[in-house]
Design goal:
The complex is a heterodimer of chains A (112) and B (116).
Chain A lengths: L3 E4 L2 E4 L4 E8 L5 E7 L6 E7 L2 E5 L6 E7 L2 E7 L7 E8 L7 E2 L3 E5 L1
Parallel strand pairs in A: 2-11
Antiparallel strand pairs in A: 1-3, 3-8, 4-5, 4-9, 5-6, 7-8, 9-10, 9-11
Chain B lengths: L3 E2 L4 E5 L4 E3 L2 E2 L6 E8 L6 E7 L7 E2 L2 E6 L4 E6 L8 E11 L2 E6 L3 E6 L1
Parallel strand pairs in B: 2-12
Antiparallel strand pairs in B: 1-4, 3-9, 5-6, 5-10, 7-8, 8-9, 10-11, 10-12
Classes of the chains: A mainly beta (112), B mainly beta (116).
């Protein structure tokens, strides 16, 4: 089973809203990732958690706040987003940080 | 300098033919990993194949093979017997070690269209 699930599939939010994206895997993977992808562009790495500790923070604006409550769950808390933050947000996991990543279906976020 | 370069924005291939998607990379690390992912129009990224820098044999997974030429720093993806379902965006990616841990890079992608 190589399934990574993400909820919600679609999200529309205003610039003053607070929302959260959720990602879950039950493969026993110890690394989890958040990516942002704009249309027709490659994914951009935002955050990496390795063994539930934040390993890489790609200088992402503080309006994006990651959280890893346990080894199976990864959240991305959103607050005061801008319209340019509208994108596909992909979650991925891997056995550890050196292995191939398995991606979820993504959340399409629209900020109005 | 770009860490991953994919020079073919778009490619066309006849169904049942083979196609090669190019990827070159730049790293001074001795231990790195190279990956190919497929992204259909639905948006999900699908892992295809992995090549480690120390692997002497080219990786193969079904109809996918990776033509790894370490000295030339290239890691081309070969898809044999193309199928209509292979139409998608293909990304080459690399993991390398840096002082603070590991870093990940994606190329700009190649859009493959399989023609019936």
């Amino acid at each position: 089973d190589t399934e990574v699930t993400q909820t919600p599939k679609h999200l529309v939010m205003g610039m003053t809203n607070k929302k959260s994206l959720k990602c879950e895997q039950h493969m026993g993977h110890r690394a989890m990732y958040w990516y942002k992808q704009k249309a027709k562009k490659p994914p951009e790495l935002m955050f990496v958690y390795s063994y539930e500790k934040l390993s890489i923070n790609e200088s992402v604006p503080s309006r994006f706040s990651p959280e890893c409550p346990n080894s199976s769950l990864l959240n991305l808390h959103l607050h005061a987003l801008q319209p340019e933050d509208s994108a596909l947000y992909l979650c991925a996991s891997s056995q550890d940080i050196t292995y191939e990543q398995y991606f979820g279906p993504g959340t399409r976020l629209t900020v109005t | 300098a770009q860490k991953i370069t994919q020079t073919q924005p778009g490619m066309f291939v006849q169904e049942k033919e083979a196609v090669t998607l190019d990827c070159t990379y730049d790293t001074s690390d001795q231990s790195y990993g190279l990956f190919w992912y497929k992204q259909p129009s639905s948006g999900e990224m699908i892992f295809l194949i992995y090549q480690g820098s120390y692997d002497e044999q080219n990786a193969t997974e079904g109809r996918y093979s990776l033509n790894f030429q370490k000295a030339r720093k290239s890691a081309n993806l070969v898809i044999s017997a193309s199928q209509l379902g292979d139409s998608a965006m293909y990304f080459c990616a690399m993991r390398e070690r840096i002082n603070t841990g590991n870093q990940f890079y994606f190329g700009t992608g190649t859009s493959l269209t399989v023609i019936p």
